[in-house]
Amino acid sequence: MDDGKRKLLKISGLLLSLGLLVEAAGYFMGWRASRIREAGSMETKPALVRLLRSENSFLRKRIRAFPLQSVYIVVDTADNLLYLKDGPRTLLKATISAGSGSLLIDPSGKRKWIFETPRGEFTIQSKIVKPTWYKPDWAFIEEGKPIPKNVKDRVEAGVLGDYGLGFGDGYFIHGTLYTRLLGKNITHGCIRVGDEDLKTLFQSVPLGTKVFIL
Amino acid sequence: MHSIRVFILLSIILLSIEASSMSEADRLMEENSLLKAELQLAKSSKLYVIFDLPAKKITIKAKGIPLKELPVESYTLWGTPVRANPLPLLTKTALVKPERKEIIPKTEDTEDAEDASEPEVLQLEDMPLRYELKFADGIEISVKPKSTGIISTLFNLVASLKSYLMTRPLGALWNGLRRQNFTEIALVLNEDDARSLYWSFEEGFQCVIWSESPA
Description:
By secondary structure, chain A is α+β, with helices and mostly antiparallel strands. Chain A contains five helices and 13 strands.
């Protein structure tokens, strides 16, 4: 073996040893960190155990006891499903269309919109029969049409189905003409539901019903 | 040879005893802290996530109500024990992040053609299967799908090698030297649930991680 090869072998061996040393040091430090909890172990005392058991049971009840006066709605935007629930019971499971997550930029470059269904806890704030759509600016921009100055030119009847349930900030649970697209994330943020499911929903939920969107 | 076998056997027995040495009071105290952390989150009007590792499930909740449950196929936990605190999700990282589709405003030429075609939108299928969730306090959760074929087995093998050869030792060493915590949790979920968790768990959402069996 010539000197060059021997040198290369030595360097490789050194690097490998260094690598192994770093790995071993890392694993040792990780193992030592994982022992922190055991070092602080408490002695089991029956009175303490009883106290903790009763407090934990109380905490569990408090977590479960947040007031939901009646039915509530859960919207799963990942699977495009809506559940009408009463406690653990599911009263209705409906296929829906939620927000597309798409981006629209005003050709002037001054405004942009992200068409997402908002996540979190909401409340049904309005219930409307035969809702009318007042087309916002983005609808005209998307269609490549000029934005009208007269409000009357923004009115479009019949596209939101027979009922609308408003849950704030202009977002609605409403019907659709495009039933073939139910089950897909396609909307501008509102939640589209099929006619029959929308009717059941409208008849079952009072104003103030909680809506959880995930 | 016989003495080596006896030594290995004894070590295993001793380690098992050590592992189960957490007293009932300890477990109840741990559970107490976790329940207090969840109560804190349940009081807010925001969604939150509970990683219940011993029960092998992830639950998306609001006000204490389970909204969606995702089963965990298997998990491993390495490093500093997780504290029972509400943890905000700081970042989600994936090799290929889903990109928002930009809507091109219609023109007279494109109007008819686009009416007939399906619009391009972000769907659940666009979400990644393999990704990392980074939390405060040096906690990282890596998610990978259950192996279902040669390709996914290969990818999972590479992910395991990365975890055992790089993330764990180097993360523990680097953070240990800076006297900071480091915990790596590796979760295996089925494909739909892995995508679903990525979709639903947004940056800024809070979570609680249960890593010990409650008493």
